[in-house]
Automatic annotation (TrEMBL):
<feature type="domain" description="ER-bound oxygenase mpaB/mpaB'/Rubber oxygenase catalytic">
    <location>
        <begin position="18"/>
        <end position="259"/>
    </location>
</feature>
<dbReference type="Pfam" id="PF09995">
    <property type="entry name" value="MPAB_Lcp_cat"/>
</dbReference>
<keyword id="KW-0560">Oxidoreductase</keyword>
<protein>
    <submittedName>
        <fullName>Oxygenase MpaB family protein</fullName>
        <ecNumber>1.-.-.-</ecNumber>
    </submittedName>
</protein>
<dbReference type="GO" id="GO:0016491">
    <property type="term" value="F:oxidoreductase activity"/>
</dbReference>
<dbReference type="InterPro" id="IPR018713">
    <property type="entry name" value="MPAB/Lcp_cat_dom"/>
</dbReference>
């Protein structure tokens, strides 16, 4: 007789994702990954019909960010979060813009949502940090597969090596992606985004008062970072324009980010859940007996 299968475990302390996932620079990468996800018509339809990203964008963003952090830093809570997400997606189904019936947990679609994180990390790190070495890239991909198992993605539904990943990725770009309704909303410069409703009361009140002035600048910056940090082949597949002048501005902005973020204290450089997990890991290592 065999017992129940053990829960999948998150990547270990000291891995590539342990360093990357909680770094505040990840906040700049997330819009590109999300936009690449919803450029798939099925994923875009699911978000269009079932997500609260229009009515509660800040709450949705906060919940998504916490979920992502749990996959890497959550320890035993990581598998529970994976089960919660699968349960949440069980009822998400409908018809996309091409008349195809879909279910959110269909392996091809569910896996694509997860797969997008790897090429965005690989591309964006060249700007915001430093390019990954070949060894780091392979380790990152292996850890990304590990996170996929937490989300309930079977190995058979994801390419298992980098050599297998890139042909899969390019095929999706060539055969599936388009500028869906949700893509166009995410890169719009005149979006109807409500003001932030989280954080200290005084700050929330000030943001609400200044939001008519701040929103246009926020929308332009979001569009700039979304398109700029998206891999060029994905950008081209979706039909998003990117000029040489924009590329120069992105490189100038990235130079500032690379100079500033590494010298920040950890309490400012890492998001709260990541910061606590990293502190706990250091304490655990310091408590080990000397051999």
């Amino acid at each position: 007789m065999t017992g129940p299968a053990a829960d999948p475990v998150p990547p270990p302390p000291g891995g590539v994702l342990w360093t990357l996932a909680g770094d505040i620079r990840g906040l700049l990468m997330l819009p590109a990954a999300l936009t690449l996800q919803v450029a798939h018509p099925v994923v875009g339809a699911g978000v269009d019909e079932h997500s609260v990203f229009r009515t509660d964008p800040w709450g949705r963003g906060e919940r998504s960010l916490r979920s992502l952090q749990l996959w890497v830093y959550g320890g035993e809570a990581a598998a529970e979060e994976g089960r919660r997400l699968r349960a949440l997606h069980k009822t998400i189904q409908g018809t996309d813009a091409h008349g195809r019936r879909y279910h959110a947990l269909e392996p091809a679609y569910y896996s694509w949502v997860h797969a997008t994180g790897f090429p965005v990390y690989q591309h964006a790190l060249r700007y915001l940090a430093r390019p990954l070495t070949e060894a780091q890239e392979r380790k990152l991909y292996a850890e990304w597969l590990q996170v996929g198992r937490i989300l309930g993605i079977h190995d058979r539904d994801m390419p298992q090596t980098i050599e297998e990943f890139w042909p899969y990725y390019r095929k999706v770009l060539a055969d599936e992606l388009e500028a869906t309704v949700v893509v166009r909303e995410l890169i719009a410069t005149d979006p109807a985004i409500p003001p932030p409703d989280r954080g200290p009361l005084v700050l929330t009140v000030l943001l609400r008062a200044a939001w008519p002035v701040l929103l246009p600048a926020f929308a332009r910056f979001r569009r700039f970072m979304t398109i700029g940090l998206m891999p060029p082949d994905a950008r081209e597949a979706i039909g998003l324009e990117w000029t040489d002048e924009q590329e120069r501005r992105l490189r100038a902005f990235a130079r500032v980010v690379r100079a500033v973020v590494p010298v920040l204290p950890e309490r400012l450089r890492y998001l709260p859940l990541a910061r606590e997990a990293r502190r706990a890991a250091r304490i655990s290592r310091s408590d080990r007996p000397v051999r």
